[in-house]
Amino acid sequence: MTRTLSDPFGRTIEYVRLSVTDKCDLRCFYCLPKGFNDFEEPEHWLSFDEIERVMRAFGELGVHRVRITGGEPLVRKDMPLLAARLARLPGIDDLLLSTNAVQLAKHARALKDAGVTRLNVSLDSLRPQRFQEITGGKLEKVLAGLQAAKAAGFHPVKINMVVMKGVRIGFITPISQHFCATCNRVRLSVDGTLYMCLGQEHNFELRPLLRAGISDAELRTAIVKAIALKPERHEFSGKPEKILRFMSKTGG
Asked: Which value, in Å, is the radius of gyration of the alpha carbons in the chain?
């Protein structure tokens, strides 16, 4: 069994961003357009057993870092239980979670106890009115979540924000500077689709194979085959019209 997962361009794949739901308890206008309701049917979501099986295969192939994302991962029931199952997998030594922190006050201690090592929190403004305009939510819930994370022992907690024209200024280096030469990640959507690049349409569906009774060895072979589809670089700048997915569908 190989312990290194490489793409056709010699990049080692050691990081999976795992989406556990495409639903969210906020409605950020840059992520979910007004009126959007095209969410994945729950019967198409990978079960916890299926997720654990796929991530075990990735761990056996050399992946050691997993980031749990969504949508908002904490809207999926029993997330700390899934986190605990993933944290116990051989080879997975860095388990992260991205969250908007709205429900973090309820779950921070359980997530820490489950083995989540780090948190990334999306927070687009510290002005309550502006936060509500961007997300439709209440800032005080996010701040309470951050306090709970600190009390649970998460340190440091990374804060992310999305730069928006007319709201602030900033730099998005993946657009202005290619990071592709050192890209070490793939994304697994809630329905079991592997996306090899955020800026390309290359993908590989694992759910049909899982539900057809694929063996563990065949699953590892399928993942290796999927990684062979990873393109050399994104085309955000040259062909932005090619990427038609909403972030809630792909995963963070």
From this structure: 18
